[in-house]
Structures are given as C-alpha cells and as structure tokens.
Amino acid sequence: MFNFLRPRTCSFAALIIFLCFFTAGCNEAAQKENAVSLYVDAITLAETDQQDLAIEKLQQAVKNDPEFAIAYSLLGDIYFQQQNYPQSASVLEKATQLNPWSIEDFENLGKVYRAMNDFTAAANAYIKACQIDPENYPAHLGAAEAYYQSQDFENALQYSRAAIDINPVDSDIHKLLGDIYSAGKDNEMAIDAYKRALEIKGNDPAIMVPLAVSYLRDAQYAVAGELLNNTIAIDEQNSDAWRHLGFASLRLNNIDSAIEQYSKAVQIAPEDYKNTKGLGVAYMMKSRSLALGDPSAEEYKQKALQQWSRSLDMNPAQAQLLKLYRKHSR
Predict the structure, then answer these.
(1) pTM of the predicted model, to two decimals?
(2) In a 3-state reduction of DSSP, which class is residue 115?
(3) How confident is the model at residue 28 (pLDDT cuts 50, 70, 90)?
(4) C-alpha 147 chain-centroid distance
(5) CA distance 1 to 158
(6) Do the beta carbons of residue 85 and residue 112 sit within 8 Å?
(7) How many Å separate Cα 51 from the centre of its chain?
(8) Within a 10 A sphere around the Cβ of 174, how many other Cβ atoms?
C-alpha cells in the first residue's frame, strides 16, 4: 500500500509546486500590467496639473513593479517640479540604477543636484551622461556649469572645451567659458570668450555686463564705459550696469558722473550692499577733490560715511570697508 501511494503522492506534490509557480507568474504579470496602467494614468494626471494624484499612482506602480524604471523617472520629474529636490534625487538615483543607459535620467539627476547646490554630485551625474554619449552637448554643458559652480575651474574648462567642439555656435557655452576665465583672472581670454558669445547671440545684457567687467579689470575703462552705456540703453533698470559704469567714471576721474550712476544703481537695487558701498566711495572721492575749507567737503564726507554704514549693515563681512569707515569717522 505504501509503495503504491508514494509515486502518486510525489506526482501530486509536483503538480502543486507547478501550480504555485504558474500562479505566482500570473500574479507577477498581472501586477506589472497594473503598474503600466497606473503609469499611464499618472501621465494624464501630471499633464492636467494633478501632480499629487499622479504621485500616488506612480508610488503604487513601483510598489507593484519595483523595477519599473520609467515610473521612477516620471516620479522624479514631478518631485522636481514641486521643488521637492531630495525626493526627486532619491527616485532618480533609483531610475539610473535600474536603467544605467538613460542619458535623460542622468541629466535630470544633475539638474536636481544643482538645485540642491550639491555641485559635485551634479557633475558626477552629468559625467555619466557624457560617458554614455560622448557627443551629448547638454551633458557636457551641465558638467562644465557644475564644475564652475563648485570652483573646480580646471575640469570646468575641460568640459567647456569639449562642449564647444560639439556645438560651437551656442552662446551659452562661450558665456560660461568667459565666466570661467574671469574667475581665474585671465581677462584677455575672458574678453575673447564673451565677445564670441555676443557675436552669436547679439546684444544681451547678461553677456555685456561681464564683458565690461573684464574690460575694467584690464584697465580699459573707456571701452567698458561705452559698453555699459549700450547695456543701459537696452536695459535701463540694470543696477549692475549702473554700478560698474560708476566705477568706470571714477577711474576716468568723472566723479560727478560716478555719483549720478551709483545713485541710480542704489535707486534700482537699494538692497545691494555693493551699490551703497560704491556710492560712498564716490562721495568720499568728491570730498577729497574739493579745496581745504570748502564746506561741501565735510558734507560729502558725511554722505560717504552714511552710505558705508548702510552697506556694512547689509553685509558686515567687509573688513576693508569697515577699516575705512572707522578711519574716516574719527
């Protein structure tokens, strides 16, 4: 009896095991199919600005299918739009692990880390995208920008030059190259890069102002002044242009013009400590330019001290200005 039942028992057990695997496979397939359905629903919800509902759908989708890479990608994008950067970074990291060949996920991850001011992590993400596609311009530009923001100018230059080789007619990369050279105090190279950016894009205050600053650093004050006046003709409310124009006027010994220009900068952006500091310098130079005994000299001196005091209130970490203020307050 025992010997007769044993083969049948074994066969029955084998059948149970097969049915379990078959059922598990069916359940897994059903879960994945449901995950796809949830993902499609999430797309519709996201497109109609129902982001919280879209997140709920996507969270359920990845719960049903933990390897659903594009669901993590969309989830990361929605979190990014909501400025929930830590969550966005977390799910995009998961997306890149599941799909390590996704250039878009690495680029988006780089954007998220830049928004979090984690420029090293951002650069690493962009580099992964560059490695996947060595001809990918946005990835090289992103890497260059991240390295620049982390003050790693050597690597910033490397990726900027690579980006220019890929796309030499985009003004953004030449502007960035100018910023990198400017940070490294290479005024000549900065001027060349900014001029190339202007040639490509045309007159743009975002390029014209840093180009003028490079001319100022190169002691080309008249050239800088002309460029800044052209900038103001395009954007009259550009306080940076007015401030730098004030500095150019001081260097050209046009003190009254400098006072007017710094005053305009203060009027436009009174919260910028650099504007009030510059106006104070202009007032002090006016005071010192007057003859001894001229009652206006003391008046301009007090105006200078007043502006410096305001500047120090806004930004106390100005050691040199504090020293000047204390010296002339005696």
Answers:
(1) 0.83
(2) helix
(3) low
(4) 11
(5) 83
(6) yes
(7) 24
(8) 25
